[in-house]
Amino acid sequence: MSKTIVNSWNEWDPLKHVILGKADGCCIPAPEPALDAKVPEESDMKGEYGPRTQETVDKANELLDNFEKILTKRGIKVDRPQPINHNQKIETPDWKSETMFGCMPARDVILTVGNEMLEATMSYRCRWFEYLNYRPLIQKYFNEDSNMKHETAPKPRLTDLDYRKDYLSDSIGVQKRLEWTKNKFFVTTEEEPLFDAADILRFGKDLIVQHGFTTNLKGIDWLKRHFQNHRVHAVNFPGDPYPIHIDATFTPITEGIIINNPQRRLPEEQRKLFEKNGWKIIDAAQPAHNSPPPLCYSSVWLSMNVLVLDPKTVCVEKSEVYQAEQIDKLGLEVVPVELRDAYAFGGGLHCSTADVFREGNLKDYFPNQ
After folding, report:
1. Are the C-beta atoms of residues 8 and 353 closer than 8 Å to each other?
2. Which of 17, 238, 327, 362 is most buried (CB neighbours < 10 A)?
3. CA-CA distances (angstroms) from residue 44 to 35, 40, 86, 344?
4. Which residue among the candidates 196, 206, 240, 247 is catalytic per the annotation?
5. The domain 15-358: what is its CATH number?
6. How many of the other CB atoms lie within 10 Å of CB of 108?
7. Which residues pair with 167 in a beta bridge?
């Protein structure tokens, strides 16, 4: 009998084994259609690309290493990826990219559902080969756990047909972007299935998937066909001018309670699934910062990018005092983790991790559909 290495059905059961990313060799990616639509128009990264400075890499790694120590002290096994050289040109028969990205946000690439680890398609060209950072670990789990399933979604071609030319202008303006996202008009087309793993939240029998810049309807359809024993629901958040990844917008913090970004509320029609099943959706506390750190794509709402360790314990970024206070008032223990100076490498506490094992079984949290 081999031991069970891989098992995780939701975002809040007791975490026992996790992958935590590294900042090594992270690059600001070169311009490409998916990226150009995502970089805020006023960003200090416009037109910049190439390796991040060693000083910022070292600082980010110091914080990630400290995060590892916090998790390990709590009895959680932590694995780290093996970084490939991200500062190199990559190409397929369809396109070329001057750089890759990095391997800090493990959550973006790997989706764990039960005993399966699924490598996402990814929708940025610079991230096409990112799975290679995690392959040694996934192969190890596959060798040690005879029930573990290693899957990889069909690699997209990512030709220009995958992206809308409307988004290539430098001066669309936030108002126009909000109008487009309200109408579900995103930078990605429906040419082929596209999804990032960080657009998917796991609620036992149900998978909640954000339709936005990084996941299209064809990607959601692929997930429905792939996870045939699950119910897959598409959600969207009209208040987000740059809708990429669900975990700074809609975050379950324990069974029955979700915090929702007040600037990007879930539409009324889509709330019904949660309300009919007794789930509370509450506005997340305001971020403690007015702007993201330097050279960072993410919004200030990484404040709500928390990692739930078990139904009563939540890791919150140390400087995000309002978010910590809100979670504390909900009766949960807050574990402060300093990570803000690593945000630029791919996100917050949830982004930087990917579940390997959480205690618990498959349950139906939404019996009333």
Report:
1. no
2. 327
3. 14, 9, 21, 12
4. 196
5. 3.75.10.10
6. 28
7. none
Least confident among 39-48, 197-206, 346-355, 359-368: 39-48
Q: Could you confirm whether 150 is annotated as catalytic?
A: no
The answer to whether residue 226 is catalytic is no
In 3-state terms, what secondary structure has residue 221? helix
Segments making up each domain of the chain, as ranges: 15-358
> What does the pLDDT look like over 116-168, one tens digit per residue?
999 999 999 999 999 999 999 999 999 999 999 999 999 999 999 999 887 77
Q: Are 89 and 99 in contact (CB under 8 A)?
A: yes
Q: Would you say 219 and 15 are in contact if contact means Cβ atoms under 8 Å apart?
A: no
Catalytic residue among 245, 247, 350, 355: 245
42 within 8 A of 174, measured Cβ to Cβ: no
Residue 86: partners with Cβ closer than 8 Å, 6 or more residues away = 25, 26, 27, 51, 99, 100, 101, 102, 103
d(CA 276, CA 300): 31
Asked if 247 is an active-site residue, the reply is no
- Residue 208 structure tokens: 């909640």
Backbone torsions φ then ψ of 60, nearest 5 degrees: -60, -40
* 278-336: pLDDT as tens digits: 999 999 999 999 888 888 878 899 999 999 999 999 999 999 999 999 999 999 999 99
Give the residue-averaged pLDDT of 75-92: 97
Catalytic residue among 24, 310, 351, 355: 351
Calculate ∠ Cα 203-263-283, nearest 5°: 55
Average pLDDT over every residue of 229-239: 94
Identify whether the C-beta of residue 334 lies closer than 8 Å to the C-beta of residue 314: yes
- 230, two tokens: 């699950």
**108 alpha-carbon distance from chain centroid:** 4
Cα separation values, 173 from 38, 128, 153, 156, Å: 12, 29, 34, 29
Q: Is the pLDDT of residue 341 over 80?
A: yes
Per-residue confidence band for 176, with pLDDT thresholds at 50, 70 and 90: confident
